[in-house]
């Protein structure tokens, strides 16, 4: 009788969702969030994200564990060491530094009494950079298939750390120094409750090409010009990537084709450069973007090996050129060091990292029989969170059989959405404009701050709680946020408890 009452309560809640997009309510009681890949936990666990998919073969588990060791291994800038490959400029020395225990990263702490803190070693955040010229570039080889335009003399990512020999003026520094402070604000609910919010703000100093302009009396650098756009990127959750890769393209396109104009929602695909297609000489190496905070990479292969070269500076068979190749800083680095000029990691290392990244398990849902969680699940649909956080998919075929034909509950539509001024970065990334972000999957979110107590939510880690993350939603999410903030506090709490159960 109790279960029947709970189901009835959910249905009554949903009866008020007049314009909600149709949604299958089986997610309310679903426990196996990752299908047969799911690993089970009774409560929140610090180890929730560190497990191989439950249905891998013994041989695949062995490959996963080898990849795990590689994921946590530090690379070195010493050419005499076997782990050589770091730099010449980079943001971290290993993968785990950005993805603590395979979870989300955290913002640096601003010291007491200080306004700014400098990004140094083992930070989970970095800045994307590019030139904005206001033009709509066609997708062809001349435009690198619509990719962001690198800043001349720099790249499309700002590397704040450098190997010895990169900067003789600032040993250990990269292309420039990056600083962060917190900008504070407050949100007041209609019922009078106030929530304090924060937003990280960044400044750049000490660029390697910096000089004093005697005419303007200012320090100048190509990096400081007005056409340069910067955008922070926080290390994200690693679980379930192989399953997201296995979602059928036709299902994502069908979600993009929905008419959700009543809610002001217009999901969009990002069509991006596909390094695998480029390597195979495909005449049009463009695919659907699935990964990255703006869906700017199409596969785990592209995302992982691109990060290996980008974030850590390790060239590999997919990305054989240094990120800063052709820049004055790189030419000076070659003169200052014994740069070997060859691929810096073996193919099996890259493949091991890709396999590991594909095969991390999804933790099971918890507390699915609790009355408040079940009520929160109904409210999740009533306020239209399910419009973008699409609860479920059935995966298609995948090269790793464990991910094929699985019923999964990632809570994402895999599409870009305009999230409003508050979250806008103003930076184009292939077809994603400066206000658009990918709908982040919500699976595993309840474990996030047990895995990493300082972890933050959203693209720059600004939100310290799930509630704060919701309150930053705008643009296409304004309709849904408006419903949420007008709920009674008890209902807001129930909805957040449901999200924590994921």
Automatic annotation (TrEMBL):
Query: Per the database entry, which stretches of residues form a coiled coil?
Result: none
Q: Which UniProt keywords apply?
A: Heme, Iron, Metal-binding, Signal
Which Gene3D superfamilies does this chain map to?
Cytochrome c-like domain
* Signal peptide boundaries: 1-20
| InterPro entries membership | Cyt_c-like_dom, Cyt_c-like_dom_sf, Cytochrome_c_Peroxidase/MauG, DHOR
Pfam families tied to this protein: DHOR
SUPFAM superfamilies linked? Cytochrome c (SSF46626)
Residues covered by the Cytochrome c domain: 371-502
Looking up PANTHER family in the UniProt record yields: CYTOCHROME C DOMAIN-CONTAINING PROTEIN, CYTOCHROME C PEROXIDASE-RELATED
What name appears for this protein in its UniProt entry?
Thiol oxidoreductase
């Amino acid at each position: 009788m109790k279960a029947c009452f709970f189901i009835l309560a959910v249905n009554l809640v949903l009866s008020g969702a007049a314009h909600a997009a149709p949604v299958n309510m089986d997610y309310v009681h679903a426990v196996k969030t990752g299908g047969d890949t799911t690993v089970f936990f009774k409560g929140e666990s610090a180890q929730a994200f560190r497990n191989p998919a439950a249905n891998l073969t013994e041989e695949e588990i062995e490959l996963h564990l080898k990849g795990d060791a590689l994921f946590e291994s530090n690379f070195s800038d010493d050419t005499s060491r076997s782990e050589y490959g770091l730099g010449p400029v980079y943001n971290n020395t290993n993968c785990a530094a950005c993805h603590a225990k395979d979870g989300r990263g955290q913002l640096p702490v601003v010291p007491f009494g200080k306004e700014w803190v400098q990004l140094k070693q083992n930070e989970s955040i970095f800045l994307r950079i590019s030139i904005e010229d206001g033009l709509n570039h066609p997708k062809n080889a001349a435009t690198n298939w619509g990719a962001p335009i690198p800043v001349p003399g720099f790249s499309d990512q700002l590397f704040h750390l450098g190997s010895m020999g990169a900067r003789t003026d600032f040993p250990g520094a990269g292309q420039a120094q990056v600083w962060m402070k917190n900008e504070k604000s407050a949100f007041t609910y209609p019922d009078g409750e106030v929530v304090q919010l924060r937003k990280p703000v960044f400044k750049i100093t000490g660029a390697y090409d910096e000089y004093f302009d005697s005419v303007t009396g200012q320090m100048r650098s190509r990096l400081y010009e007005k056409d340069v756009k910067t955008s922070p990127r926080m290390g994200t959750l690693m679980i379930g990537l192989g399953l997201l890769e296995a979602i059928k393209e036709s299902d994502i396109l069908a979600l993009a084709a929905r008419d959700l104009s009543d809610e002001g929602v217009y999901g969009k695909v990002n069509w991006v450069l596909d390094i695998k297609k480029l390597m195979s000489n495909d005449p049009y190496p463009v695919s659907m973007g699935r990964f990255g905070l703006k869906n700017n990479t199409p596969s785990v292969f592209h995302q992982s090996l691109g990060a290996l070269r980008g974030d850590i500076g390790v060239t590999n068979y997919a990305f054989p050129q240094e990120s800063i190749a052709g820049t004055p800083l790189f030419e000076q680095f070659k003169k200052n060091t014994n740069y070997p000029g060859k691929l810096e990691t073996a193919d099996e290392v890259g493949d091991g990292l890709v396999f590991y990244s594909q095969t991390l398990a999804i933790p099971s849902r918890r507390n699915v029989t609790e009355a408040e969680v079940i009520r929160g699940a109904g409210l999740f649909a009533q306020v239209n969170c399910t419009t973008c956080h699409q609860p479920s998919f059935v995966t298609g075929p995948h090269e790793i059989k464990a991910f094929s034909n699985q019923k999964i509950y990632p809570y994402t539509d895999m599409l870009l959405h305009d999230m409003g001024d508050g979250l806008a970065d103003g930076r184009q990334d292939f077809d994603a404009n400066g206000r658009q972000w990918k709908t982040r999957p919500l699976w595993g979110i309840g474990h996030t701050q047990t895995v990493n107590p300082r972890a933050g939510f959203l693209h720059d880690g600004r939100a310290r709680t799930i509630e704060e993350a919701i309150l930053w939603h705008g643009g296409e999410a304004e309709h849904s946020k408006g419903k949420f903030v007008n709920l009674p506090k008890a209902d807001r709490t129930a909805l957040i408890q449901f999200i924590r159960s994921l």
